[in-house]
Specification:
Layout: H1 2-8, H2 14-26, H3 39-46, H4 50-62, E1 66-68, E2 74-76, E3 100-101, H5 116-122, H6 138-147, E4 154-158, H7 161-172, E5 178-183, H8 187-195, E6 199-206, E7 209-210, H9 212-222, E8 226-229, H10 243-253, E9 260-265, E10 286-291, H11 293-296, E11 303-307, H12 309-319, H13 328-339, H14 341-367, E12 372-373, E13 380-384, H15 387-396, E14 399-400, E15 402-403, E16 415-419, H16 428-439
Parallel strand pairs: 3-14, 5-6, 5-8, 8-9, 9-10
Antiparallel strand pairs: 1-2, 4-11, 6-7, 10-11, 12-13, 13-16, 15-16
Helix pairs in contact: 1-3, 2-4, 3-4, 5-13, 7-8, 7-12, 9-10, 13-14, 14-16, 15-16
Length: 458
């Protein structure tokens, strides 16, 4: 086994050793349960220091590829993270006794378009005549291409935005690769990348999105394979890229042609910001995900995925060995919703309501001296003195929010909580008073006001 590992290593850095062992595990050449050689034996065989091999072993352990059992040694294991280690599992907040749960990040059900008429219209349709048909209904693909923010080479439909990001990750990211993300970032995306064995690097954001200078420095320092970002209604801050920022980021990325750009446009039609994409400048390297869960309904379980043919074809071909395609019945419902005047009007109304709710709570929080941002979408990012104390204080009022720590790639310099402001329908002032008090904000009398860009973003 020592010779097998040594023969697979062509890069004697910790990252290269970890990647080589990961490839052997994936290929089955190192089967589950196999005992690995000792750190010292591997170091001696490769002519590197034991510290380098130890770092590689730690990376493999964090990814769940191997398990260390003390003096018994290290063993190949199934690469699955325990649920309690997933960032996503930490978002539920303190749910006992909760009366108002603002931790979920889901849309208001009452603001989703009514599916009744759409289901009636497509209920008798015969949408599948062969298992070899294309994965996307042709009329839906045409409608999606009309909506796409740039001329895309190939499109497919998958089972939600996270399914899309999971499949893109499996296609473009390998164990030991560096991947750049926003800091803060959406926790399930961090879970996906870490489960794939990637080293995740956070890039600061400001009120216009990912910071170009910081992106350039990270590209130069880490040699990443991909950068993941949210072009609109960033979760958790609500920030959206401006056209100018898109151009600035594209200018930086143009010098790194091997880097794939992955965009998660999860908010879709409830975002007030206009659609933007780095694909307008770098279409051959941009994979864009258009989500419909927040705008048209989580139970549709649909998202569109578009980008270079090499990436999208690989994803579609791999799906043939699993689900094959996303339900064409649900695709037909989505097509109806995208083209129905009533549904379009309902979603436009929802977009306005969400905007009103964001503005109302931000105004009320400012009056109570709290620091928060909620630029777009359905979430609000509240700065607090102490995350756990804030959540305990809110739980005493029967309120649950999501902790900020799971969103952080690296510490932001201040604690935060995420509030699903899209679910707050009324009583904004009294709720803001409770939130501000839990956050440790100065009293109203201090005259302090909510700043638009919370401390700790950068």
């Amino acid at each position: 086994m020592l010779g097998l590992i040594a023969g697979a290593v062509d890069d004697r850095s910790a990252r290269g050793i970890a990647a080589a062992v990961s490839r052997l595990v994936t290929a089955g050449e190192l089967p589950v349960g196999a005992r690995l050689p000792t750190v010292r034996d591997v170091a001696r065989e490769l002519g590197v220091s034991p510290t380098t091999v130890s770092e590689a072993w730690r990376s493999l352990t964090r990814a769940g590829a191997i398990q260390t059992r003390g003096r018994s040694g290290s063993f190949v294991t199934t690469p699955a993270l325990p649920r309690q280690r997933l960032r996503y599992a930490q978002l539920g907040g303190l749910l006992q006794g909760v009366v108002r749960d603002f931790s979920t990040g889901v849309p208001d059900h009452d603001l989703l378009p009514n599916l009744t008429e759409s289901l009636k219209r497509v209920g008798d349709a015969r949408l599948t005549t062969s298992y070899l048909e294309g994965p996307v209904l042709p009329p839906l693909e045409a409608a999606l291409r009309r909506r796409w923010p740039y001329q895309v080479e190939q499109l497919t439909v998958v089972d939600g935005a996270l399914d899309a990001l999971d499949r893109v990750t499996a296609t473009v990211v390998r164990f030991g690769d560096h991947v750049l993300v926003e800091n803060p970032a959406f926790p399930p995306v961090l879970d996906l990348l870490e489960a794939a064995g990637a080293t995740v690097v956070g890039v600061p954001i400001d009120e216009h999105g990912m910071c170009p200078d910081a992106l350039g420095e990270a590209l130069k320092t880490y040699d990443p394979v991909a950068v993941f970002l949210q072009p609109r209604a960033h979760n958790p801050t609500g920030v959206s890229l401006t056209a100018r920022r898109v151009s600035e980021l594209a200018d930086v990325l143009a010098a790194y042609p091997e880097v794939t750009i992955v965009e998660d446009d999860h908010a879709g039609d409830i975002a007030t910001a206009p659609p933007v994409s780095l694909g307008t400048r770098l279409p051959d390297r941009t994979v864009h995900v258009a989500g419909f869960s927040k705008s048209h309904g989580p139970d549709l379980r649909l998202a569109a995925l578009g980008g270079p043919a090499a990436v999208i074809t690989a994803i579609a071909d791999r799906r043939l060995l699993g689900p094959g395609w996303s339900s064409r019945l649900l695709q037909a419902v989505l097509l109806d919703l995208l083209t129905s005047a009533d549904a379009i009007a309902q979603i436009a109304a929802a977009r306005d309501v969400y905007a009103q709710r964001r503005a109302a709570l931000l105004t009320a929080l400012a009056a109570h001296g709290a620091t928060a941002v909620s630029a777009d979408g359905i979430n609000l990012w509240l700065t607090v003195e102490d995350q756990q104390m804030a959540m305990l204080a809110l739980a005493a009022h029967g309120i649950a929010v999501a902790p900020g720590a799971p969103f952080e790639v690296t510490p932001l310099g201040a604690d935060h909580v995420r509030v699903t402001v899209g679910l707050i329908r009324d009583d904004f002032d009294s709720l803001a008073q409770i939130l501000a008090s839990a956050a440790g904000a100065p009293s109203r009398a201090s005259g302090n006001r909510s700043r638009p860009h919370p401390r700790g973003w950068r």
